[in-house]
Amino acid sequence: MDCRAVQRHAVQRHASDSGRSTDAMIDHGLLVQMLIGALLGISVYLPLMAGQLSLATPAFYAVGGTLAALLSTRWAALGASADGRFPLPSFLLEVLLGGVLAGLLALLVGRLVLRLQGIYLAIATIALVEIVRVAILNLPLAGGAIGIFAIPQPFANAAGYLLPALALLALAAWSCQRLESMPLGRAMAAIRADELAARCMGIDTTATKLSAFVLSAVLAGSTGALAAHFLNTWNARQGSFDVSITTLAFVILGGSRSWLGPVMGGLLLTALPELLRPVGDVRLVLFGLVILLGPVLFPQGLITPALLERIGGFGRQEAQG
Amino acid sequence: MDVLLQTLLNGAAAGGVYALVALGYTLVFSVLGVINFAQGALFSLGGYLTYLLMGGHISVSGGLPGWGLPIALPFAAALLLAAAGAALLSLLVERLAFAPLRRRNAEPLLSLITSLGAGLVLVNLLQLLMGAEGYAFPAGSLAGLPAVVSLGGARIRSVQVLLLLICAAVVLLLTLWLEGSRGGRALRAVAEDPTTARLLGIDSDAMVRLAFLLSGALAGLGGGLVGVSVSLPGPYFGIGYGLKGLTVLVLGGLGSVPGAIAGGLLMGLAEAMVPSGASGWRDALAFAILFVVLLLRPTGLLGRRLVEKV
Amino acid sequence: MNGTSAGPTVPPGQPTALLEVKDLSCRFGGLLALDRVSFALQPGEIFGVMGPNGAGKTTLFNLITGVTPASGGAVCWRDEPITSLPPDRRNRLGMARTFQNLRLFEGLSVLENLLVALQRQPRSSTLAGLLNSPVHRRAEAQRFERAWQLLEELRLDGLAERQAGGLAYGDRRRLEIARALATRPTLLLLDEPAAGLNPTEKEGLAELIEALRSRHRLTLLVIEHHVPLLMRLCNRMAVLDFGVRIALGTPEQVRRDPKVIEAYLGGAA
Q1: B2-296: which CATH number, 1.20.1270, 3.40.1350, 1.10.3470, 3.30.1600?
Q2: C154/A108 Cα distance (integer angstroms)
Q3: Where are the domains of chain A?
Q4: CB of A207 less than 8 A from some CB of B
Q5: Which of A193, B106, B122, B304 could disulfide-link B41, Cβ–Cβ 3.0 to 4.6 Å?
């Protein structure tokens, strides 16, 4: 879990520099970290809306992050300088490019892997994550196992990242909500319910699954670009099998019948290890216990269809049951 | 010539370990149709238990610095006990991560998460106890065995030969048991058709427990063997083998015993063939092979075709 | 074309068949589920397929709709071969089906089941949908209007918000028909529409099918176990036995065919 160590380091770094300037009680670094968790949760949820269990999110996250880390440290035209602030438009451009590159990769890979069913798809996407991780590790410019350091900062402190992270999350949530009242989202729900019947009703299931896969990748890629700047350092371990597990846990614990589920799961499970920091080294054991016992105690996740009914259908996905 | 032989033997030894892990997955998958993601953690456990049972001490960064068991067993005994320990823990994993979901007829996907959780708990408990850095088995762990043997002009580490022989023996025994014994036949009956097996008076819950017990033992054996032949690079080392085993499992086709063995050997040999100049890519090779095979044959090399009934 | 004299006389050189099945075969391992079956559907007719259990009727449907690949022979749509097209493409050409053992989108509401099938009626882009543009809203309005029409036509309008999985059996059968109609088919394939219905519902079914045919200008291909219904409903019919077409003609001709009496009607008595 080296990635967690890096994340913790970043959170601490941001916590210490933001602590001076703002209210020390609010840990802005942790909040940004939680938002990144929620974004990755939605990225896992999108293919699930079409009934596809893909664990490829960390691969696309890593691609976006590596792109941003490379561009901002190697390409002077973006405006990075030793002392000055990294220009905000350059940062936003990287977030966009990270999403585009990840989306293109997903378009390429998705055509191949989405022919696979069920657990075979899950395992193939784990393989994809490992291939991308090793590729980044061996990439000449990416700094090997140590990675890329001193990624320039567009903001004075961690609090600066809150707004772009929130904006990205709002955009993702809005898109998920919109999907439910448009043909693409309905086709996804139909495939999740009965793929063969969906095909017989004229739904191009390949294109629909590919759309969900690409949307998921774009979101993960953009999130990666944002995270690379926020974390200040980036290496191949950011997108490893561990991240597949944790992001999937976001969805399972939160519930997979609405985008609210992965968002809640991402926020809570990212905060949990940090909130558990006082108990020291035991926190990862406790984190594991949550994943182990969560599905036993809450088989439908925290955000269940019944709960959504009660709060008025907000964020409800059409496929229930 | 001798280099080639050496490479082949290294590959076969690694492949034997992959086959052990994949067989563990296969046993559970064939009776339950799910994958036990705690397998990698049990592999780690096997390695560390073997180390402790052979009289190894905990390093300064561990939870009990300098502590060790008051016994120092020979390798064979330590390995068997470690496998038994991993088997018992595998039973516990079944109780905590699988049984409650099965009783409730929950979505099979959930057991993927719960078993990952169980593995995470186990690996991190190991880390708390033993510390994060690696352990090497003491020199002379394999008393009486020369470090290197000569074979047709090639000089080969004898531990590799031993590892290969043990893997082959275990695989052979397991296959014979599955084919020939009452218990093995009952297990296969449950794997074929649980409902009919129940009608024939086979206790399918007992068979599930048996499958977990055996798969845990296989993982424990693998961990101990890798530990003594290479080292224990840290509590997470089993996860890597678990992932490789998973690719082997798919290569061979889910639920196929000969497939798991063939896939393991294939994978080990392919990795051994990677030239040292490209060793950084070795870890990706297994997954690249898997990727290609899945695309050509969506249910694995020897897997059965899935047909949807309309 | 099949050489049976029972088919309507076709003027030479004029393509009239909507769907033509030529020497269609399907093999599962060693079992020949369908053995060189041929027939042609004329626009507007109701064509029945009957046969004992395991005769290959549903396999025939699966081959026509592209669910199962054919081992031999050809399926032609308006004289164009479509044997290698996937089910979704065939649906978009104008054929829609129901399933013998009902395959509704169970977790979705009745209305949503229809909206899924209406996704191209009319088409609208994903971008327009994400932005909720006026184009998208107009398209949605049309889809809802069409869905409600179909619900009313099949007397499901009171159940629009209910989950499809929770409906009574007869309602689910009608919902499957409504869902198939929502894709605007020229050819509707019904796989045992009377199965599981009570006698009253069975009685109403023939009238319903007849009404749907004229209102939607459909050609129908119907598999049915309930022989009286088929005899009453169909213009022509084919009889399958062990994957072989043993008879083809009007209900009257089929009823008198000695092979049919032996293999099917006689065998049942």
Answers
A1: 1.10.3470
A2: 44
A3: 2-18+28-241
A4: no
A5: B122
Cα torsion angle, A228, A233, A237, A243, sign: negative
Pairwise CA distance, residues B47 & B219, whole Å: 9
Q: What 3-state DSSP class applies to C80?
A: strand
Interchain contact, B117 vs A290, CB within 8 Å? yes
pLDDT band, very low/low/confident/very high, at A46 (cuts 50, 70, 90):
very high
Name the 3-class secondary structure at C191.
strand
B168 min Cα distance to partner chain A (Å): 27
Q: CB-CB: which of A181, A182, A318 is closest to C108?
A: A318
Q: C 40-69 residues with CB below 8 A of B? A: 58, 62, 67-68
Whether a cis peptide bond, with omega within 30° of 0, leads into C134 is: no
Q: For each of the domains in chain C, give its residue range(s) and CATH number, in order of start.
A: 17-94+185-269 (3.40.50.300), 106-184 (no CATH)
Considering chain B, what is the average pLDDT of its residues? Answer: 85
pLDDT, residue A25, reads 54
- For tokens 């001076």, the residue is A20
Domain-by-domain residue ranges, chain B? Answer: 2-296
- ipTM, two decimals, is 0.89
Q: Give the Cα separation of A291 and A279 in Å (integer).
A: 18
Q: How many CA atoms lie within 13 A of A52 on its CB side?
A: 31
Query: Around Cβ B183, how many Cβ atoms within 10 Å?
Result: 14
Nearest by CB to residue A199, choosing from C87, C163, C182, is: C87
DSSP 8-state code for residue A87: P
Q: Match 């049951």 to its residue by tokens.
A: A321
Query: Taking a contact as any Cβ pair under 8 Å apart, which residues of chain A between 235 and 254 contact chain B?
Result: 241, 245, 248-249, 252
Bridge partners for C24 per DSSP: C37
Average pLDDT over residues C112-121: 94
Q: Exposed, middle or buried: residue B248 (CB in 10 Å: 0-12, 13-18, 19+)?
A: buried
CB C107 within 8 A of CB A49: no
State both tokens at B70.
Answer: 């008051």
Question: What are the distances in angstroms from CA B283 to CA A148, B125, B278, C185?
Answer: 21, 26, 10, 52
| Cα–Cα distance measured from residue A276 to residue A4, given in angstroms and rounded to the nearest whole number | 13
Report pLDDT digits (tens) over A228-279. 999 999 998 888 888 888 898 888 888 888 999 999 999 998 888 778 777 7
* B213: Cα within 13 Å, side-chain hemisphere: 10
B114/A296 CB distance under 8 A:
yes
- For chain A, percent of residues with pLDDT exceeding 70: 86
The alpha-carbon gap from B304 to the nearest alpha carbon of chain C, in Å, equals 13
CB contact under 8 A, B298 and A290: no
Q: Which chain A residues have a beta carbon less than 8 Å from that of B286? A: 130
Order across the sheet with C19-28: list the strands: C31-41, C19-28, C72-77, C80-81
The closest CB to that of A284, out of B106, B124, B294, belongs to: B124
| Residue labelled with tokens 């999403």 | A99
Instruction: Report DSSP state, residue A148.
Output: B
Q: At what angle do helices A241-254 and A260-275 cross, to 10 degrees?
A: 120
- pLDDT category of residue B153 using cuts at 50, 70 and 90: low
Structure tokens at C153: 């036509």
* Prediction pTM value: 0.86
User: What SS3 class is residue C234?
Assistant: coil
| Nearest CA-CA partner of B144 in B159, B124, B128, B164 | B159
A61 with A239: CB under 8 angstroms? yes
User: CA-to-CA distance for A54 and C25, rounded, in angstroms?
Assistant: 37
